[in-house]
Task: inverse folding
């Protein structure tokens, strides 16, 4: 399953609210926002560096870094007045840096699986389930999943661990295979954490059970 963030589509079908239009155009529409996202990331890094929260001598570090930022701002202002070409080059370099910093992180397999589960849950809505034929039609009507046939969609469902019932009754329709809403809710719910049977004090190892001699 490709997870390239620059790819126009993903192998897994998207959430129903993915959008309309051609997949490649839909991917390009989010690209202009990449510079703004990268700018926010760079600004966050600069802000964290200026605040020097983890520095042992924070007061001195903040004063020194604030002085450096003020000197840099002064030099930028003088450059803008005297040599605007250099300022344009610096702005272009910053735009490239923001573009690189805003590169989306490829989603993990667990994230892709959760997207599929959320998409199926959205399509089910308030119904007790959905038949596979209706699910395939809904997914294939969306641009990012239009290239997936029934066999590949079923393989995605099986890969995500979604139980497929051979006969599911929804309203007056029965005798068709489908997916229950309860199964999707169970897969989306976090796994329960088993609590220890006996309380253990902090720093004390758990007591071992007595072993009968042979």
Result:
């Amino acid at each position: 399953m490709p997870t390239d963030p620059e790819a126009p589509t993903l192998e897994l079908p998207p959430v129903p609210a993915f959008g309309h239009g051609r997949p490649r155009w839909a991917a390009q529409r989010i690209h202009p926002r990449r510079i703004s996202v990268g700018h926010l990331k760079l600004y966050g890094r600069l802000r964290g560096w200026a605040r020097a929260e983890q520095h042992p001598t924070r007061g001195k570090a903040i004063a020194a870094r604030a002085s450096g930022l003020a000197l840099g701002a002064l030099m930028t202002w003088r450059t803008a007045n005297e040599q605007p070409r250099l300022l344009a080059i610096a702005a272009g370099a910053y735009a490239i840096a923001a573009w690189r910093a805003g590169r989306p992180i490829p989603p993990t397999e667990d994230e892709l699986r959760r997207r599929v589960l959320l998409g199926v849950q959205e399509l089910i809505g308030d119904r007790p389930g959905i038949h596979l034929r209706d699910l395939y039609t809904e997914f294939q009507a969306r641009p990012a999943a239009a290239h997936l046939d029934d066999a590949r969609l079923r393989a995605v469902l099986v890969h995500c661990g979604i139980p497929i019932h051979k006969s599911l009754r929804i309203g007056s329709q029965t005798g068709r295979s489908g997916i229950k809403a309860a199964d999707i809710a169970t897969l989306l719910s976090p796994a329960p954490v088993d609590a220890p049977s006996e309380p253990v004090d902090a720093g004390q190892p758990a007591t071992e059970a007595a072993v009968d001699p042979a």
Q: What stands out?
A: The beta strands are 129-131, 165-170, 173-180. The chain has a mean pLDDT of 75.
